[in-house]
Amino acid sequence: MRFEVMRLDDIDGTPVDTTVVDAASVNRIVQQAAAIGQRLWIRPAGTSAS
Questions:
Q1: Closest C-alpha to 21, from 5, 38, 33, 41
Q2: How many Cα atoms occupy the beta-carbon half-sphere of 22 within 13 Å?
Q3: What is the pLDDT of residues 4-38, one digit of tens each?
Q4: What span, in angstroms and rounded, lies between the C-alpha atoms of 42 and 44?
Q5: Residue 46: its pLDDT value, please?
Q6: pTM of the predicted model, to two decimals?
Q7: Residue 49 to residue 33: CA distance in whole angstroms
Q8: How would you label 8-47 residue by residue, b for 16+ Cβ within 10 Å and e otherwise?
Q9: Is the CA virtual torsion 46, 22, 9, 12 positive or negative?
């Protein structure tokens, strides 16, 4: 399964960067974001997002 991961702006929460990754990469991305206090929005990727 693939997921769309959006990095959110610290001020207003708007998406500033988007990537589509496989399920194995989601944990690594979440751990990195947590370490620096980055906000993420993660959702299943649709067929058009890949």
A1: 5
A2: 1
A3: 999 999 999 999 999 999 999 999 999 999 999 99
A4: 7
A5: 81
A6: 0.80
A7: 21
A8: beeeeeeeeeeeebeeeebeebeeebeeeeeebeeeebee
A9: positive
